[in-house]
Every structure is written in structure tokens, then in C-alpha cells.
Amino acid sequence: MFWDTITLCESLQRQNYASPNNKLASLRRQGIYHHIRHGRYETESNIPPHILACSIYGPSYLSFEYALSFYGLIPERVNIYTSATTCKNRTKKFTNDFGTYTYQDIPLAAYPHETMVQVWNNRGYLIATPEKALCDTLCKQKPVTSLKALKQLLFDNLRIDEDEFEKLNRESLLFLCPLYRKKNLNFLCRLLEKEGK
Questions:
Q1: Contact assessment for residue 67 and residue 150, using Cβ atoms and an 8 Å cutoff
Q2: Model pLDDT, residue 11
Q3: Against a cut of 0.85, is the pTM above it?
């Protein structure tokens, strides 16, 4: 279960602990509470780390390399839990007992679309659809100047699996691409239209 410092200290105070902060520190040392970021704690030590991503910093949803790996679009296993935010104007990184979590902005117009709620043990979290994860990732890459360069970026640099790429929903991609107003996404639109995907 997810807790914040104020709620925990109030609970400990109601249990007549003279120094709730000292008791909280003791409970942390015992492994009962796990510090996930300043002022926030988790009680479940066996929780899959990606479940925590939206609780650590938000609003956010899992995306970029983590989601691409999750869906099998790239062959690598990704050990950093990468998430998308918007209107934060900075990249954030948190490291705790569960792993390393990073957060990057995407354009506001694209942010609310094509995410899904997933549930683990009655705990919900948000993750991008495969199409959204790809668009978010392309949004953060250095701009390309041709379709040939886009293909190289997709299939050589990012190592997107071509068979999995062919399975992506064309309508979703064509809807998402213009929302970013980025060259890479404009070229992705052109690629989809040219190849009739």
C-alpha cells in the first residue's frame, strides 16, 4: 500500500508514539516501509517495480523504452522504468529500493491519448499503448530529414522489430502523429501512407 509521510506520522501519533518520525525511521530499517521518494512510502516489498511508476511522480504513464520492451517491440529487457509526463519542463529521475524511474515531457496535445489502465492486486497504473510508446519515443529522438533516415532510426538505432511494427494499429498512429508537431512523427505519417500500412 502507498503512504505519504504526513498520513503515516498521524497514524503513529494516534498509536501514542512520542516521536512518530523516529518510529517511522525504525519501521523503515525493519523493512516494513520502503521509501520510494521524498515523503512517500510503500508497504508491499514484493510489488512489481513498474506498478510504482505513476505513484512516484505524476501525472505520468509508463512509456518510451520500458513500454516498447514490455510489448516486445524491442529485443532488449529494460531495467529503467521510463514514463511520460507533460508540462513539467524538465526530466526527473528517482532511484529507490525498487529501481530507477525516469520521467520526460511529451507535448500536452498528445499526452491524454492512447493510454491504458492495468491492474495488479487491485492496484492500478497507466501504460502507453504500443503505438503511443513508439510515438513518445520518436518524439524524444534527434530529428531525421528523410524517410530513409527514419527507417534507420526505427529499425537500426532503436531496433524496433519489423514484424511487430507491422502489427501496430495504423489508424492510432495516424491519429497520434500530428499531435506531437515533430519532424520524426511527420515522417512516420509519410511512411505509413507510402507503404499503405
A1: no
A2: 72
A3: yes
